[in-house]
Amino acid sequence: MALTLTDEYFEKFKTTVYEESGICFNSVNRVVLEARINENIKRKSLAGFDAYYQLVKSNKEELREFLDSITTNLTKFFRNESQFVSLRQVLPQIAAKKTAGNRVIRIWSAGCSTGEEPYSIAITAGELGGALSGCTVSIFASDISLKSLITAKEGRYRKDRFENVDKAIVERYFDVMPEECVARDNIKKMITFDYHNLKHPVTFKDLDIIFCRNVIIYFDAESQKRTIDRFYEALGPAGYLYLGHSESLFGMTTNFKFNKLDDAIVYTKGI
Fold first, then answer.
1. Which residues contact 40 (CB under 8 A, 6 or more apart)?
2. Of the candidates 71, 93, 111, which is a domain's last residue?
3. Which of 70, 98, 168, 207 is the most exposed place for a label (fewest CB within 10 A)?
4. What is residue 3's DSSP assignment?
5. How far apart (Å, rounded) are the C-alpha atoms in residues 162 and 179?
6. How many structural domains comprise the chain?
7. Residue 202 in contact with residue 233, Cβ under 8 Å?
8. What pTM was estimated for this model as a whole?
9. Is residue 78 within 8 Å of 165, Cβ to Cβ?
10. Residues 156 and 31 in one domain
């Protein structure tokens, strides 16, 4: 039987999560935190919340595993398809502005989870072919969950992750097995996967595009503002920012400009 998370331990675990990741739990999503903690307690055969809390606070590997358990989300390829439709317009425009000494389109997939997003970006670029005017595409994909990054690097996905994706496209970029699809080198080579915590400063400069979808919705207002400001500094002139459909910069003081490309909302950095 699942244990009921007391207010005392909700505050303790909530504070730990916020301090380590910037993710903010409240009364609305408390049930999610409680469920993940209960799963971990049961799996480790612990006595209760105090035993698990002490373990998490005293062991860095347990802390990382705990954060993994609450940040891993199920996603799929080409989620929010309208954004990838707009990306097909944006990429050739960026390529056309690249000079002879800089023929690389640099993209960051921030909070990439298990990798469906960066692979979808890579496929979109691959399908454009000559429309990119000889430019190459380099995608840095990061997440706070090491478990998710392992899955992303392997590039092995159940077929249900490709819901509504054209079969011919899947076969161009994946080896299709009876139960799963395995990413080929033609898209793997575009992507570098690595750990990054969005609570920490960013070292990137002059990026062309940042995807950070369905991530900052879990941050409080202060962390959202700090993250968006860092994205602004990381982008080059006229760079693009894609957020999740349920996320917005409305009401936030920022220099990003609101744009609508067909059915997709995209934010751009002013020149």
1. 52, 65, 66, 69
2. 71
3. 168
4. P
5. 12
6. 2
7. yes
8. 0.90
9. yes
10. no
